[in-house]
Amino acid sequence: MKTVAEYIQLVNKEMEDRFCVSVPEPRQLYEPIQYILSNGGKRIRAVMVLLSSNVFSDDISDAIAPALGVEMFHNFTLLHDDIMDKASIRRGLPTVHLKWDENTAILSGDAMMILANKLICQTNSKNLKQILDTFNQTALEVCEGQQLDMNLEKRDLLTDTISEVEYLEMIRLKTSVLLGASLKIGALCGDAAIEQADTLYQYGINIGLAFQIQDDFLDTFGDEAEFGKRIGGDIIEGKKTYLLIKALESASTNDTATIKDTINNRSIDEGEKIGVIKSLYLKYKVDEQAHDAISHYFSEAQRTLASLDAPEERKANIAQLEQLLRKRSK
Ligand code: IPE
Ligand code: IPE
Ligand code: MG
Ligand code: MG
Ligand code: MG
Questions:
Q1: ∠ Cα 197 199 205 (to 5°)
Q2: Which residues of the chain have pLDDT under 70?
Q3: Which residue of 63, 73, 100, 191 is most buried, as measured by CB atoms within 10 A?
Q4: 57: left (phi over 0), alpha (psi -120 to 50) or beta
Q5: Is the separation of the CB atoms in 52 and 305 below 8 Å?
């Protein structure tokens, strides 16, 4: 059995060999794909496919191409997400739509979605139909989540309240389902029973909720060099993050007005805007509330993993990945 670090290396090597060594024609289409893929990322979705497959089978060869497929899909969503979020930095480098242009990011992203589908199909698993059904349903749900994210972004804080329930549904769709599907697809590649595959899916949903709340936290309180994205980007974009929702639940009438006015203010200096909101987040300890929520969903995940009908030693790598995610700063 390989370690989690060895699985990450395996994914990096496969990505490198298949998509980064040479750039086919037309270069304008494939160069941005090589750019985003060769610049790493944590590779957690691909690793989840492999670890999950390895719970049920010593031979993970049927899971390798599907693992690269979900990772390709994830990277595609980042190209389009960065246009939608007007993001300037990803993994410490300029985003594709700024390094090239928006049309390039759209079309290279589209090509990546198709490459993702091709990779998912490159398995000899007898469960290919279920694997494809899971992948396609999930891909559609990620689009639904991204639409809910934009709908929430547009909702005016002065006339509307956004509930934690709405937020959780949005992040379940935009982030959690892909982690759940990665684990489920891996389980299916390893010939798990459907109940086992579904338990791992549920585990991934809980990990994903914790993961996205962490992402919201790091977007305001992380270190830019480490996180690789612009700190405060969510505040500038008026994203309805866990932090913002909790701050509006806890703040005094005066501070609530300040938060709403500051988020809505488009003429204020960006650094000042981030500073004002961040200090109110700290005043109302929403950083601590986010940590509590993150711990809660990781604990839920642990309980789900404990209920998985498989030998403890075979689940150890999945539990180890979870420990790495708990401590993440990028
Ligand atoms: C970023 O995902 C998008 C979110 C769902 C928050 P990751 O944090 O997994 O990004 P990389 O692939 O490691 O860069
Ligand atoms: C990401 O949400 C969800 C998807 C990419 C589908 P975010 O917009 O928070 O992700 P980052 O912070 O840009 O990576
Ligand atoms: Mg987004
Ligand atoms: Mg984004
Ligand atoms: Mg984010």
A1: 105
A2: none
A3: 63
A4: beta
A5: no
For 56-68, write each residue's pLDDT tens digit: 999 999 999 999 9
3-class secondary structure, 89: strand
DSSP 198: H
For residue 94, the 8-state DSSP code is E
CA distance 150 to 274: 20
DSSP of 161-227, one letter per residue? ---HHHHHHHHIIIIIHHHHHHHHHHHHHTT--HHHHHHHHHHHHHHHHHHHHHHHHHHHHS-HHHH
pTM of model > 0.90: yes
Length of the chain: 330
In this structure, the residues whose C-beta lies within 6 A of any atom of ligand 1 are 41-42, 44, 91, 175, 212, 215
CA 270 to chain centre: 26
- Ligand 1: which atom is nearest the Cα of residue 45? 9
Q: From CA 244, how far away is CA 149, in angstroms rounded?
A: 14
Q: d(Cα 50, Cα 252) in Å, to the nearest integer?
A: 48
Rounded Cα distance between 119 and 81, Å, is: 22
pLDDT for res 219: 98
**Ligand 2 site, residue 146, Cβ cutoff 6 A:** yes
Question: To which H or E segment does residue 90 belong?
Answer: strand 89-90
Q: How far is the CA of 317 from the centre of ligand 5 (A)?
A: 26
Q: What is the pLDDT of residue 40?
A: 82
What is the pLDDT at residue 139?
Answer: 98
Token pair in block for residue 187: 């389980």
